[in-house]
Amino acid sequence: MSDAWSAAEFETRLRRVGEERYHDKHPFHGLLHEGKLNKGQLQAWVLNRFYYQKSIPLKDASLIGRADDIDLRREWIGRIVDHDGGKDGGGGIERWLVLAEGVGLDPAYVASCKGVLAGTRFACDAYVHFVRDMPLLEAVASSLTELFAPDLHKTRIAALLEHYPFANDKTLAYFRTRLTQAPADVAFGLDYVLRHAKNRDQQEACLAALLFKTDVLWAQLDALHHAYVSPGLIPPGAFVPEDRK
């Protein structure tokens, strides 16, 4: 067994994953942020991304359900509330449906997940299964893409406000809220991984988990780009924009 990296070196390697592999570098995000998506392509992104949003509390619930660490459970349960909301609603899923309505989609249709690409389903379901089945430390490590999310949200907010008429404080509330939620989440997750990955094998397993999560995010955008941008092959059963009917 190789010697463990120092905490500083381990963190550097984790952050390097984002520099090299985070989905902010995907061509689809380039089109989105440059204002080059048409209405139907934008709707397809919102619709498919909802399936990822609804998957997040499912994977978080499975993580909590097998965590013996009470401090971890206490901290992690807040993530479910952030997405599902409280008894009166108000969570990230609800805010995403406001975005969906803003881009001209029926929120009920989006919530039904009809029309979601198979590639989106496979990627998101694989993430839920990973968190459910893999060692707890690796499950936590897979969440560390949140290290890179705030910068993406800032870029996205500015780009959407500049290029798309639907964008306003109401429709972009999901992204603005994540500017404060994500850093708090990742501070705990990063500290947990740095403290509990005590040998090189565990550290490398955590890196692999984070790489897997970047692949999950990238695969979703690959599916969108293939179906709605180039070559534009929308598979049977998937959402078809008005301009493609």
Shape field:
globular
Protein structure class: mainly alpha
Number of strands: 0
The sequence of SSEs as H and E is HHHHHHHHHHH
Radius of gyration: 18 Å
Span from first to last CA?
Answer: 58 Å
Attribute tags:
245 residues, globular, mainly alpha
Overview of this protein structure:
With 245 residues, the protein is mainly α. The chain has 11 helices and no strands. Helix 3 runs antiparallel to helix 5. The longest helix is centred in the last third of the chain and has 29 residues. The protein is globular. The N and C termini lie far apart (58 Å). The mean pLDDT is 96.
Secondary structure: elements and pairs:
Layout: H1 7-21, H2 27-33, H3 39-65, H4 70-84, H5 92-102, H6 107-112, H7 118-133, H8 136-141, H9 149-163, H10 173-196, H11 200-228
Helix pairs in contact: 1-11, 3-4, 3-5, 3-7, 3-11, 7-11, 9-10
What is shown here, in short?
It is built from 11 helices and no strands. The chain has 245 residues and is mainly α. It is globular, with a radius of gyration of 18 Å.
